[in-house]
């Protein structure tokens, strides 16, 4: 099996494994998706699949199809269970993202077209940042971790070194990794990990100190006993 095929399958698995918990958390109302973000990502996903299919894509089409399906499911759920998407600034950003999608489809230069996609996708990410910053528990962090890994795997699925084809997967990996890092930091995950590690180190040091003190007392007792005069 070729490496590009393996990477495509890995990216598809990351998409499924990341989206399913997000959907479950949304249904349970533990996660609150931003409507504007998922609208942009759904449109981008569907258009990307159609564009890749028209260009004769093969294995790289698999992760894109999985991603598009997942984003559309979340979008449908967000209509009733989500938040955002109706304020003036948000509508303005949605219009700018729409312009990015139009530019992607009309510009003939691949690098510029990819830049339009990145602009639209980045706007989708920026729309959800204020909500995720205020309430990090309203997002499922694992989705963005796996999306970042999926972006890296999608880059491997391209199968050749070509800037227009690698720029977007690289961006996708970076932006989702950044979102995951922000959510984790706001939740204090790293503080908990570091704090727990510090407590374990302190416990080990305390045990070592206790053992050392006990050993010292044993040595002193033996020395005192050996120095006693014989009767």
Explain this structure.
- This protein is mainly α and 231 residues long.
- The chain is 83% helix and 0% strand.
- Helix 2 (35-54) runs parallel beside helix 4, helix 5 (110-134) runs parallel beside helix 7 (163-187) and helix 6 (141-158) runs antiparallel to helix 7.
- The longest helix is centred in the last third of the chain and has 39 residues, at 189-227.
Task: Describe the structure using short key phrases.
mainly alpha, single chain, 231 residues
How many alpha or pi helices? Answer: 8
What does the radius of gyration come to?
Answer: 27 Å
Low-confidence stretches: none
Give the integer mean of the pLDDT values. 79
Percentage of residues assigned to helices: over 70%
Overall SS class = mainly alpha
Beta-strand content: under 5%
Approximate shape: globular
Number of strands: 0
Note the main sheet: none
Give the N-terminus to C-terminus distance in angstroms. Answer: 86 Å
Q: What is the succession of H and E elements? A: HHHHHHHH
Short description:
Helices cover 83% and strands 0% of the residues. It is mainly alpha-helical and 231 residues long.
Break the fold down into its secondary structure elements and pairings.
Elements: H1 3-27, H2 35-54, H3 61-81, H4 88-106, H5 110-134, H6 141-158, H7 163-187, H8 189-227
Helix pairs in contact: 1-3, 1-6, 2-3, 2-4, 2-5, 4-5, 5-7, 6-7
